[in-house]
From TrEMBL:
It comes from the Eukaryota. Residues 13-149 form the SET domain. Pfam families: SET. PANTHER family: SET DOMAIN-CONTAINING PROTEIN 5, SET-6. This is SET domain-containing protein. It comes from Lepraria neglecta.
Length: 288
């Protein structure tokens, strides 16, 4: 997967994207050329971030300390009545390693939400940038989208989160046109709950994990959550001495991580070490 940074500011040219007005969701970011899965579309410097996105004094204080050029970038973002707090709440994304900060990433802010996104936003602590990667091949002329919330939430749950962004989701799932997808997501939620109640490395857990992974893959929801389920499956196999299967799931973990965050992310480094441990365990078994 490509770890280069196409651009680091909102004003730098980006060969991958163009912009278009697409009612009712407003402006959207369009792929100017085909973008392959795993490609970094852009990397964003955070203009500023806060812990409490509802704290008007803190948001306005951070905004007031911005250099003029960065204020102009912020002011160009969509907002309700050009109010600083409203603009922040509409465009801020959760970031940092613990997902406790809300920050403004100018290019990512131009991406609309989809419950079936084709891109993934994450924080790269090594680069100190927010990065956006294609999680599947994006054809030229297609809108690039991320998910503003956990796409596995119920329709009502997603609407509640999206209300903060003043975003009316009109995808087939939210429009109740894709009943099969919503049923699969309901089953995914059930399996997640079941897995959380069972012993971590028991055979039943592994079977549920495989079913869960298959459903998430069918929905096309590639994310670090999917990587975590692959890793959990690898750990289950290792605990039951199924080293070949453990390595297979471990390599899938690394593949998903690289797709979502790139090979220059600390998450990739940690996952690679995990897979190397699985490779060593399999070598030891074969040598006996």
């Amino acid at each position: 997967m490509d770890a280069e940074i196409p651009s680091t500011t909102a004003t730098a040219p980006n060969v991958f994207i163009t912009f278009s007005f697409n009612s009712p969701t407003g402006y959207g970011t369009i792929a100017a050329r085909e973008i392959p899965r795993g490609k970094r579309i852009f990397a964003d410097e955070c203009l500023f971030g806060v812990l409490d996105y509802q704290n008007r004094a803190r948001v306005q204080g951070k905004y007031g300390k911005l250099p003029i050029e960065k204020k102009r970038i912020f002011d160009q973002l969509a907002s309700q009545g050009h109010d600083v707090l409203a603009a922040f709440q509409t465009n801020a994304l959760v970031y940092n390693d613990r997902c406790t900060m809300y920050g403004i990433f100018p290019q990512a802010a131009g991406l609309n939400h989809s419950c079936q996104p084709n891109a993934y936003f994450s924080w790269n602590a090594k680069l100190q940038f927010g990065t956006t990667h294609a999680i599947r091949d994006i054809p030229r002329g297609s809108e690039i989208s991320i998910s503003y919330c956990d796409p596995l939430l119920s329709i009502d749950g997603r609407k509640e989160v999206l209300a903060r962004y003043s975003f009316p989701c009109v995808c087939n799932i939210c429009s109740d046109l894709d009943h099969g997808s919503e049923r699969r997501r309901s089953e995914i939620r059930r399996l997640k709950s079941e897995i959380s109640r069972t012993r971590r490395h028991c055979p039943v857990t592994l079977l549920d994990l495989i079913m869960l992974i298959d459903l998430i893959e069918e929905e096309g929801l590639v994310s670090l959550d999917l990587a975590n389920y692959y890793r959990h499956a690898a750990e289950c196999c290792r605990a039951t001495k199924q080293y070949k299967e453990a390595l297979r799931f471990g390599r899938k973990t690394l593949e998903v991580v690289e797709t979502c965050v790139g090979s220059d992310s600390p998450v990739f480094d940690a996952t690679k070490q995990f897979v190397q441990g699985l490779e060593e365990a399999e070598r030891e078994v074969k040598s006996k």
